[in-house]
Each structure stands twice: as C-alpha cells, then as structure tokens.
Amino acid sequence: MAGVGAAVALARRLTSHTADGHKKGREEHWLAVTAYRPLDQVTGAASLPEPLERLRDRIEVRFRPAPGDKGTELLARPIGEEVSREELRIALRQAKSLLETGLVVQPDTTGTTHPGPAGKVLQLVIGKSKGEGRL
Length: 135
Prior knowledge:
The chain is of the alpha+beta class. Helices cover 39% and strands 14% of the residues. It has helices at 2-15, 39-43, 50-53, 85-101, 117-129; strands at 31-35, 59-65, 72-78. A hairpin with a 6-residue loop joins strand 2 (59-65) and strand 3.
C-alpha cells in the first residue's frame, strides 16, 4: 500500500512540471548561492565570474551581503525563456566554486555502485538530479 502511495505521489510531482522542469503556474523566482567572499571582492571585479558572464545578456544578477556576515549572496534569474533553471543553477554553483577556490570543483562520484535493483534505481535518480544538485 505504501508503495502505491509513493508511486502516485511521484507521478503527481512529475506531471506538475513542464517539459523544461518548471513547475506549472509558478512564476520565476531568484536562485541564489552564498560565496564565502566579502561583498566588495565579488562586486569589485570588472566582470561576473565566467559561468555567469556567459549568460549575462539572458539573466538578471544581484549581489547582497549574506546573513551573519558569512560572505556574499549571488542571486540570479532568467530573463525570458532562453536560459533553463538547470543551466542557471549549474552556472551559480560554478561561480561560487570559482570565487571561493579559484577553480570549478567537480562533485564526487556517486555513493553506491551496488549492482542490485536498489543501486540501479539510485543511479537513475542521481542521473536525473545532476542539474539540480546532489540528493
């Protein structure tokens, strides 16, 4: 019974999104990351970090101090439909990495390589979530 309920919930969630991953009826909201760098170091640069600079004419970007003096929040949202939210999330994560470390840090490999059914399901889910972050 619980499995049927979970399948119904998953089906509803999947059908509540459009083909490009947007929730139906949801207006665009800002995506944000916090970079552990002072605001003046982030905004004082001549250009945006490269991943965001690539999208400059298709996104709106804002900066603000992070709460608790913990760095700078980078906020971005697409202008129009030319940039997917997935593409923007990836660019924000890469920009954060560049600001903090000077390079784009790649994620670790998946936590399981179990060949059984659970491992196959996990690999499928992780593959689908790559653009939206780790699970």
